[in-house]
């Protein structure tokens, strides 16, 4: 955040206030929904990272691009689209529990998100729909 504004004491007080405001006792009452939400987020993120590293970049990282002095930031639009689709696909079963296939996808939210995002990102990254000219 801002080291000039926050010291250790102010950071601790801020964390305590945020901890109370998120109402952790409400999360405990709906623990399965909370775990489902977490799995629905981390599964697609893991699938995108695996597909990007192993298939798109073929296990080669450009360390100069990652750690270089050129601090231009750009979002991976392919990954964002896949994350939204995969998260929605794995989370929708929590809201429609009467549909068996959606409930099953939600029960295994991490794995369904991981597999769907891996497959979607692999397919989307092969197309030129989202890529910039001159970049892979």
TrEMBL record:
The chain crosses the membrane at residues 12-28, 34-55, 80-102, 108-125. Coiled coil: none annotated. GO terms for molecular function: nucleobase transmembrane transporter activity. GO terms for cellular component: plasma membrane. Gene3D superfamilies: Hydantoin permease (1.10.4160.10). Keywords: Membrane, Transmembrane, Transmembrane helix. Its main location: membrane. It holds the Pfam family Transp_cyt_pur. The keyword Zinc-finger does not apply. It comes from the Bacteria. It is a multi-pass membrane protein. It is found in: Membrane. Belongs to the purine-cytosine permease (2.A.39) family. This is Allantoin permease.
């Amino acid at each position: 955040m801002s080291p000039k504004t926050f010291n250790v004491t102010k950071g601790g007080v801020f964390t305590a206030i945020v901890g109370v405001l998120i109402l952790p006792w409400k999360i405990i009452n709906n623990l399965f929904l909370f775990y489902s939400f977490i799995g629905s987020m981390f599964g697609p993120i893991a699938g995108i990272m695996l597909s990007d590293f192993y298939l798109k970049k073929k296990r080669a990282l450009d360390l100069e691009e990652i750690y270089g002095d050129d601090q231009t930031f750009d979002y991976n639009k392919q990954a964002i689209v896949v994350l939204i689709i995969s998260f929605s696909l794995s989370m929708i079963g929590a809201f429609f529990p009467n549909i068996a296939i959606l409930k099953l996808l939600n029960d295994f939210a991490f794995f369904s998100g991981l597999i769907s995002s891996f497959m979607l990102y692999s397919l989307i990254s092969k197309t030129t729909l989202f890529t910039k000219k001159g970049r892979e």
